[in-house]
Structures are given as structure tokens and as C-alpha cells.
Amino acid sequence: MLACNRLRIDPGNESAVVDYRIEDGFVESRTLNRDEARSAVAIEKQWQRLTPEQLASRVTTDRTVANWLLRRMGVHRLVRACSQDSSSANSPLLESSNPTAA
């Protein structure tokens, strides 16, 4: 089940590897260089919570990330996550909720 909430984008060249995860209802990412991605350092590397603006940018520029998030979150929660205002940026998006609320 853990693998379902993680995605690694490895371009296969000298570019950085980007990991994504959904943790506690939020989308997080971390960037690893090639050596970190192959070692135990990746386990230690800090995750960064994506802001709505960062998330919207990733979704519009990376089809793989967009498709993965659509499958994991659903279209309504993903749209909400990308357009959430700063006052509600600390509320998780993957919790079960009443679809008529909000």
C-alpha cells in the first residue's frame, strides 16, 4: 500500500530524481541527485510540502505526475489542492469528507 502513495521520476540521464508522496493528506516532494537516489541518503532527505501554486505547476507541466495524482486523489480533490487559498493550505485533502461540504 505504501508504494501506491509514492512516485519517483527518474529521467535516466544526469538530471535529478524527484520523489513524490501523499502523506497525511498532503502532496510532498524531494529532489535527489543521482548519488543520493542510489544510496541510503534518500531515506534521510527531507520532504517538502508543495504549495497549491507549486502543485498546480507540476500538474500542468508533468503528465506523469498529473496522472498519478488523478488516480490517487481524484479530480475534485486535485483541483481543490491546486486552487486552495493560503488560509486553508494546512488542511489535508485526502480525508473522507461529505462531498456536499466545502
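(ticket continues) Second input and output from the same batch:
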Amino acid sequence: MSIPALRELRRIFPDAHIALHTRSWADGLFRDTSFIDELITFDSNRWKIRDIYNNSQFLKEDQFDLAVLFPNSFESAITTFITRIPRRIGYNKDVRGLLLTDPIAVPEWKNRKHEVYYYLSLVSEVEKRVLGRDTVSAALPNAALEISDERKQEARQFLDSSGADLSRPMIALGPGSTNSRAKRWPAERFSALAGRLVRELNADVIVMGSTAEADVTAAVTAGSAHRLIDLTGKTDIGEAAAILSVVDLMISNDMGLAHIA
């Protein structure tokens, strides 16, 4: 949901060195992207104070001129404050305005528009305040993720070694869901659908999800009369993104893989 805003940040600062400071699990999503120059990743631990101190000390080394805070967290604001980044722009939430040089009011429309516009609006404010112009507000969101040819080839090899026939249509199913079981289409419906896809389209059906969703993916594969390729818990997010870049179709509940697809 932040990708369109990151693309616009690159467009308005074409010659800047743009680093994305994010948790390490996101590395696989942004590894091949053209809109950032550097990935600075970290693993969160139980002691937030240690995270803040370690990140601030690490970020000081690069002497950044501007920090754009996409997260609404107090932690992100105090980290950039301690780092002494000269310009710190973010939404004024959770009493963190005092830590920002440019606290931005949360748009009154926030709950009525898609989340991509929330981040785009922040970059629009960056453009107004730093460059004195506004072109971002007219931008159409581009949420495309780039996956290198090398990673696509590795994904095809992984699918081949997992039993997929690369000459047939490849269709991914995502029977898990984000946060709530109530949001799931029933497993037996996915099983029935998988059967139709195999019979009518001669497709190889790939079931995907995290280890936390193993119960529902197991129910889908067990309920199918046809062989399904179950990759649940066998990929990290970067590998999953590469696989989704080479399949023909994904049918999914509300889950992270749906956004990536």
C-alpha cells in the first residue's frame, strides 16, 4: 500500500539516495525495486527501547537529510528524532508531533479512501514543503512490484522441483485470511474449485500460505480429488512474491499474498 507513494518519492527526488528502513521480513518484497537505492532492515525484539537506540545509532552513519515517516508509530518518530535527521515529516498521531519538524494533520477523509491515498497524501505534503510545488496529488497510484528475471527463473525451478508442470496453466489458491477465520471462503469450496480448474483448464493448482494457515490449506488439499501442490510454509515472502509473478492466476481470500499478487 506504500508502493505508489514510494514511486512518487523517487519521481520527485530523481537524484536523491533513497533508503527504505523497514523490518527484515519485507526484504523480499523490495529487493528488485527501482524506486529505492538501499534497503536498511532490522529485526524487532521484545525491548522496543533497544530497537530505537540500535536503529538511531545505525541511521546516524548515513547522515540523512530527510526522513519521511510512513508508519504512524511513536517508535518511528523518536528513532528519527534521536538520529537528529534535520527534516522529519510524518502524520501527527499519538502525540508525536513534537518529535517531527513537519507534523502533518491526518486527512479528514482517511477512513473513506483506500490506504494508498493516505501515503500518497504524505508524499504530496513532502513535495509542497521541500520543493514548493504539488504534482503528486494528481498522480495515479502505481502499485506494481518488480521481480528480477533471475528470481522468476528460480521460482520456475522451485515449482518444477515441487511437481508442477510448467507447460500447463498455473493457478495459485490462497485459502487463508488476515486476522479472521470469518473472512474465509470455506475450504470445501476451494477444494471443489481446484477440481474444476484441473478438469476444465488442465491447470496445476498451487496452494500457498504461511505456517499459521497450515490447517486450512491441509483441509483444501485433503478435500480435493486431484493432486494439488501444497507450498504452505515452504517459502519466505520474497520467494512467494517471485512465484506469484510467474503463475497465471491467483484466487484468494483477504491475505497478504493477495496484495502481492
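Agent notes: The radius of gyration is 21 Å. The mean pLDDT is 93. Closing as not reproducible unless the customer responds.
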